[in-house]
Each structure stands twice: as C-alpha cells, then as structure tokens.
C-alpha cells in the first residue's frame, strides 16, 4: 500500500503544474479542491482555512511541497510546513518550475521555502530535501518525478523520524 501524502503548493500560480504531479498515481494524495469549493473555504476566513488544511493533513505520512517560482513565503504554505514538522510528518520539496503550466509555459526557479524555518540551531533547509529534477523539458521533469517520488517520500519520512 502506498503512502498517503498531502500536497502543498501555491494554488494561484501552480495549480496546473501541481495537478500533473498529483496525477502521477503512485502516491495517494489529498483530493484536489475545485475552484468554487476553495472560494467557499476562503470565505470562512483563516480559521476555516486552517481547519480545511488540518482535516486534509490528518492521516498523511508526508507533506510534499511542490515548489514553483512564488511558493516560498506564502502564508498557507508556511502554515502547512510548520504543521507538518510539528506533527512529525515527513517533508519533501520538489521543484516544479520546469513543468509547464496551463499556458504551456515554464516559470523561473523560486526560493527554497524551507529557508524560512529554523529547527534548534539548524535551518530546516539543511534537513528537508528539495529535489530539483535535472531535465530541462517539462516531460523530462515529469518523468523524473514519476520515477523517483516514492523513494523521495520514503527518504523524507526516514529523515523526519531521525530528527
């Protein structure tokens, strides 16, 4: 049985890219939320968003942060990373900026979102792996992620269990 994971990503800019990765099929991920459902959740304010995230993260063994050009520093991504660490979940980052979006365009490399956190005296970015597929084409990046994501998730869980 595959791991159950929660995918964290910048919805506005990376939903299309994230949907490609979430549809790889080797990992059971959280259910995609439809635009109109997300708008309903947002209308409930911060507490409603926190509850939705908490409910979605429940029972997951790992949080996979799909890192695009503008992922780092986003309020809810920071919340998800902080919660994942506090709950003892594995955390993995995967750069997706070279996966094409809805317009068929790649984006630029974004900052490492794990640089924003400190665990003891260490930056979280020195603990959590941020995978950067070496391919330049969208299809190459997708295939690299598909071939490796299961192993990366297992590695992230092992890393978290040892920290």
Topology:
Layout: E1 4-8, H1 11-22, E2 28-29, H2 35-43, H3 45-57, E3 62-67, H4 75-86, E4 90-95, E5 118-119, E6 122-123, E7 130-131, H5 138-161
Parallel strand pairs: 1-2, 1-3, 3-4, 4-7
Antiparallel strand pairs: 5-6
Helix pairs in contact: 3-4
What does this structure look like?
By secondary structure, the chain is an alpha/beta fold. It has one domain (4-161): Rossmann fold (3-Layer(aba) Sandwich). The chain contains 5 helices and 7 strands; from the N terminus they run E-H-E-H-H-E-H-E-E-E-E-H. It has helices spanning 11-22, 35-43, 45-57, 75-86, 138-161, and strands at residues 4-8, 28-29, 62-67, 90-95, 118-119, 122-123, 130-131. A 5-stranded parallel sheet has the order 2-1-3-4-7. Strand 1 (4-8), helix 1 and strand 2 form a beta-alpha-beta unit. The chain is globular, with a radius of gyration of 15 Å. The chain starts with a strand and ends with a helix.
What's the β-strand tally?
Answer: 7
Q: What class do helices, strands and sheet pairing give?
A: alpha/beta
Mean pLDDT, to the nearest integer, reads: 91
What is the name of the CATH topology? Answer: Rossmann fold
Number of domains: 1
Gyration radius, rounded = 15 Å
Low-confidence stretches: none
Q: Per DSSP, what share of the residues sits in E-state strands of 2 or more residues?
A: 15-25%
Output the helix-strand order: EHEHHEHEEEEH
Please give the count of helices.
Answer: 5
Strand order of the largest sheet: 2-1-3-4-7
Share of residues in helices:
40-55%
């Amino acid at each position: 049985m595959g791991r159950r994971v929660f995918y964290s990503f910048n919805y506005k800019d990376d939903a299309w890219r994230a949907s490609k990765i979430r549809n790889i099929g080797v990992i059971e991920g959280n259910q995609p939320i439809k635009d109109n459902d997300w708008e309903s959740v947002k209308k409930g304010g911060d507490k409603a968003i926190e509850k939705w995230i908490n409910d979605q993260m429940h029972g997951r063994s790992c949080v996979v942060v799909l890192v695009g050009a503008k992922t780092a520093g986003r309020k809810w991504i920071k919340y998800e990373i902080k919660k994942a660490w506090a709950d003892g979940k594995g955390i993995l980052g995967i750069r997706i900026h070279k996966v094409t979006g809805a317009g068929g365009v790649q984006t630029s490399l974004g900052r490492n979102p794990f640089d924003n956190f400190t665990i003891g005296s260490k930056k979280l970015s020195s603990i959590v792996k941020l995978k950067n597929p070496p391919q330049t084409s969208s299809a190459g990046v997708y295939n690299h992620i598909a071939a490796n994501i299961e192993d990366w998730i297992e590695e992230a869980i092992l890393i978290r269990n040892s920290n």
